[in-house]
């Protein structure tokens, strides 16, 4: 699926031509302008705390006016890239979409690369091309694809990336040929955790934060060992800063992945990306496409199909990808579906921060499942997770988001006021999540007030296990709107595109 307005005309836009006559300097200035047209954001090198408590500097995203030294991507001539791809022969074609085509190539130094040749009449215009060059030149992370260089010869627009040998996540989930082995549970959790880390980097480490805006399975590329990297940053936007709650922009993205509040209002927040992540995570769990018009009515939209199933835990096994053939941990399935359901909350303020999602998925990815283990020969759906207990001290250890204590402005930025009295975040506890699984009406999206269950742990391993799980499934998503007076009138307006 290509990129297009989620709701509205898909008519192609024609952007003004890039000023390449001025050489590289002209291109850099145009790129900086494309990223933030309303103003040039100041450089912010504030230190932030990493997950292990050490200090790290945030990545400066937008250069100061006149400072173009930040763009370090290599420039290529069209002739060089034509030679690298054997003049764009069909046997070198890796894939194509609304933006153009991607070819496998070999540079003069022998490096294998992926060359994206943009269709001059396609969906990715000059503006998106410039944004992607600037974004990937400034942002570097193990879960973001590396941009090697670009070509802006005349009206030719090409991007040169590192080559990802395993293709996209979409290639491993949907329409598999008979001889292709589907992803096992461990690989799926590893991919989800890695992709979430890439998104976390954009939200938490970039300054200003970056809203990816087009998170989908076809934009997650896989390297050796199924190492995931996010690609295609043409639709990325700078997030809100200061006391702003969102940015307002033309609705763009891919149908089936857009957050509902963004699709309806054009008001974009970091939580819009979290919703899109939830859709992809649900794809990983179920093996279904976000939108599949070949299915029966009522099952074509993945999220709409999943919502009623979230309300009944007895139906959870029916949500697992049939290609897994039952080889997955039942508790892991419950927890994974709970994370997906939280990300897919209709109200943006009740979704978790991506940092909390990373913590939960890192835990799930660490729980290696033996795919060769014998399947259970019982009608019991699966072992229940030990409920949280107390042994003198309350073990319900809340996993405090790093945002929750950093700054009131950050807490304000990540929330959206969706009701007259403001939406509020939720507190999610392991005891609440797990104890409700004993009820046929259990739903991870309809959790009630946690119950007290004071009991003693039988052994040290039980205690350690309960503590570990509490850290992950504790009160991750606390109330973030409390005390905030912001509303939709507080906005950072930008030129629509």
UniProtKB/TrEMBL annotation:
Residue runs in coiled coils: none
Catalytic activity, as annotated: L-seryl-[protein] + ATP = O-phospho-L-seryl-[protein] + ADP + H(+); L-threonyl-[protein] + ATP = O-phospho-L-threonyl-[protein] + ADP + H(+)
Gene Ontology cellular component terms for the protein in this record: plasma membrane
GO biological process: innate immune response; positive regulation of defense response; regulation of innate immune response
InterPro entries: Kinase-like_dom_sf, Prot_kinase_dom, Protein_kinase_ATP_BS, Ser-Thr/Tyr_kinase_cat_dom, Ser/Thr_kinase_AS
Subcellular location: Cell membrane
Binding site for ATP: 116
Main subcellular location: membrane
Tagged with keyword Phosphoprotein: yes
GO molecular function: ATP binding; protein serine/threonine kinase activity
Signal peptide per UniProt: none
UniProt-annotated stretches for the region Disordered: 1-64, 400-464, 478-497
Domain Protein kinase: 88-364
EC number of the protein: 2.7.11.1
Pfam families: PK_Tyr_Ser-Thr
Keywords: ATP-binding, Cell membrane, Kinase, Membrane, Nucleotide-binding, Phosphoprotein, Plant defense, Serine/threonine-protein kinase, Transferase
Biased composition (Basic and acidic residues): 11-31, 44-62, 400-420, 428-437, 449-464
Family under the similarity heading: Belongs to the protein kinase superfamily. Ser/Thr protein kinase family.
Annotated protein name in UniProt: non-specific serine/threonine protein kinase
Annotated source species: Dendrobium nobile
